[in-house]
Amino acid sequence: MPPTSPVRRALVAFAASAAVLGAAAVPAAAAPHSASAGPVGHGDSARLGYQKAVAARVLKGVFERGDTAVVDRFVRPDYIQHNPLAPDGAQTLKSLAVSVHQQFPDAEYGIKRVISEGDLVLVHSNVVLTPGTPGSAVFDIFRFQGGEIAEHWDVGQSVPDKSVNGNNMFSTVSWPRTEQPGPGFLTACNKKLVTAAFDQLLVQKDLSAIDRYWGPEYDQHNPNIADGVAGVKSGLGAYFKQFPQLTVTPKRVIAEGDLVAVHSHYVSAPGERGQAVVDLFRVRAGRIVEHWDVIQDVPAASANDNGMF
Fold first, then answer.
1. Rounded Cα gap, residues 37 and 145, in angstroms
2. What is the C-alpha separation between 55 and 128, in angstroms, rounded?
3. Which of 2, 54, 150, 290 could disulfide-link to 23, CB 3.0 to 4.6 Å?
4. Separation of alpha carbons 120 and 255, rounded Å
């Protein structure tokens, strides 16, 4: 849709609102952030559950009800924001939440799945401003500090009317059909597998990685790629040929159970700003069996100085 349309302007405002969650800066030139993959004990499990509950409560409280008190309770005032549409400061989130709720009182932050590892939480959602419209697919990433939200990244794109694979951008197709992550004892091995697979396939552009790491029943939720192993081979093969100088740089990996998310910077050619991408993979029995993603262009200007990564 044209960038000047009222719906586009509203979506920009809504995305900016959803983005104003975060604090403490990431050290410049640091290695990609990867949450601890060590064993999860009872105390860790309770902490991860708390973080997931808080992330969901803040998103839904602010953007469905215009609740500013939830920001005071759970969001640090000294956050850093990585959404390029929003300046730093919890007050900005509160102001935008009120404005968006007044304009779109029936907006829904439809949370589909939530995972947490270490101090990070990833939320996959269908954000719908106006009931009856497809809305947007959004990944929010939060970093917690002292039990409060301290930093935020996000990636969002409009949900298309059609998909070449017949799957929508949010459903779970692979067995078991649940949106909840699998057992915590699977986290470390699945994270290691996806990290290796991602490196070989997307960083090194080696299509043979699909034969080593992907399951034959692979279910695809990217609306532009056909289902199955043949679809991902054909789609990525064409992508690599079209952009031979493509670079993919992982920034952070978040895993819980059978779900592993990779937040990356894709750059098609030197000198381009590229795209912020979150790829979410589901693993079963040592094979990647399902994939969701969200892709957003990195803009030329930003309301903050923190960058999208």
1. 18
2. 18
3. 150
4. 9
